[in-house]
Design brief:
Layout lengths: L1 H21 L8 H4 L1 H7 L1 H25 L11 H11 L27
């Protein structure tokens, strides 16, 4: 389910970016290039109104999807991936053999007479 939200957010963000790029804050924008037929049918004023409404709709859609999507993240214990991790951690571990004890030092130091006296 979270994958569906991710895809919807990406698609809505791309459409929002395109709508914003088409607009011009002064009123011209790329809509004049694309809207030759659309301007004749709807008029320039209505074209900018549609683009502005589209901007608000897609911005709201991205915001709502981002706020709602965490509710669909699987909780701990319900995710199959976490079950796999739990199963791996319960597998008995092989213990390394204990190291052999170090041999005791039984050799004695040779006693040398003092040659300096």
């Amino acid at each position: 389910m979270i994958l569906i939200f991710g895809v919807l957010i990406i698609i809505a963000s791309i459409i929002l970016g395109l709508i914003v790029l088409i607009q011009n804050p002064k009123g011209g924008g790329l809509s004049g290039s694309f809207g030759g037929v659309g301007n004749q049918l709807m008029g320039v004023k209505q074209t900018t109104d549609v683009l502005e409404k589209g901007t608000w709709i897609f911005a709201a859609l991205v915001g709502i999807l981002c706020l709602v999507s965490p509710a669909f993240i699987p909780k701990e214990g319900t995710n199959k991936g976490s079950d796999l991790i739990n199963n791996i951690s319960t597998v008995p571990q092989q213990k390394a053999p204990a190291p052999a004890p170090a041999p005791a030092n039984t050799a004695t130091m040779p006693v040398t007479p003092d040659s300096g006296k």
